[in-house]
Amino acid sequence: MIEELQQFGSLSVAHRTGGAPVELVRSKDEVVFLAFDNRIHRLVELHVLRGGSTLDAATKRSAFE
Predict the structure, then answer these.
(1) What is the tens place of the pLDDT at every residue in 9-21?
(2) Could you give the residue ranges of the DSSP H alpha helices within the chain?
(3) What whole-number distance in Å separates Cα of residue 50 and Cα of residue 41?
(4) Digit-coded pLDDT (tens) for 33-61
(5) What distance in Å separates the CA atoms of residue 14 and residue 57, rounded to the nearest whole number?
(6) Which candidate in 29, 31, 34, 46 could, as Cys together with 14 as Cys, close a disulfide (CB 3.0–4.6 Å)?
């Protein structure tokens, strides 16, 4: 999907052998990538909301938890 995605802030996005980022299936409203947080030295999930739809307040809050 987004082969050129390498770094997002302190996060290094994990890539498959072929170069594609590792995507985790979570929700139809977001794309989730496996990433390594260079500040805390742990694997984390990077959630990217899909465009085109508005989100209710509860969904917006959950994106920051």
Answers:
(1) 899 999 999 988 9
(2) 57-63
(3) 27
(4) 999 999 999 999 998 887 766 667 776 66
(5) 30
(6) 34
Name 42's bridge partners. Answer: 37
| Block residue for tokens 């990538």 | 33
pTM of this structure: 0.68
Q: In the beta sheet, which residues pair with residue 43?
A: 36
Query: Residue 33 in contact with residue 57, Cβ under 8 Å?
Result: no
Taking CA atoms, 6 is separated from 31, 47, 53, 58, in Å, by 15, 15, 26, 30
Name which of 54, 55, 1 is nearest 23 in CA terms: 1
